[in-house]
Amino acid sequence: MSKSIARAVRREMHSSRAILSGVAAVTVTIIAVYCLLESALRALDQPPWLADPLTAVQRLADLPAGMPTPLLGVLGAVAALIGLIFFLNAVLPGKRARHVIADDRIAVVADDEVIASALARSARLAAGVTQEQVLVVISRRTVLVNVRPTSGIPIDETSVLTAVQQEVESMALEPQPEVRINLAATGVIGV
Fold it and tell me: Which domain does 132 fall in, by range?
């Protein structure tokens, strides 16, 4: 795979951090413009728009005094939560629910919902049940196929597992997920 194709695949597999970065940049810009406005008003001996910069800095330095403890705790918790959101967004990988389909010539990225639909069809045909009786959940490394049999009609778990594994192998997904089958103990009536 060439570098440009690998870069395109990486962009498709990872979520963008542009929205949160934009929010942070706009917030910092607004605060900076406000501080500049208040400083300019003070330099021109005009009344402050919201708060005098020197008074605001002095209140910030004397912060525990004059502020109710519950309000101070709530403000601290909100600030910590916002900081945690920004920190986790920066540190966590931000993977999208997609898999790469191996191909030497082109980049193929498939959404996990599309893959789940194809695997559910294979499981449904192998089990001989209706579409509503099969649910496939895909994560990065596993495929979990939940099958609810029709009451009184047994399902061969190994044939369903084999059919789904063959479908996964034919897709050539990267990374190759492990397939697990979960047969419900109770059946569905009248399907």
Answer: 98-183
Does the pTM of the predicted model rise above 0.85?
no
As for how many domains the chain has, the answer is 2
- Which tens digit of pLDDT belongs to each residue from 104-118? 677 777 778 888 898
Q: Are 151 and 115 in contact (CB under 8 A)?
A: no
Extract the runs of DSSP E, i.e. beta strands, from the chain: 98-101, 108-111, 134-138, 142-147, 173-174, 178-183
* HSE-CB for 55 with a 13 A CA cutoff: 8
129: phi then psi, degrees, rounded to nearest 5: -120, 175
> Do 106 and 82 share a structural domain?
no
Strands of 112-189 (E only): list them. 134-138, 142-147, 173-174, 178-183
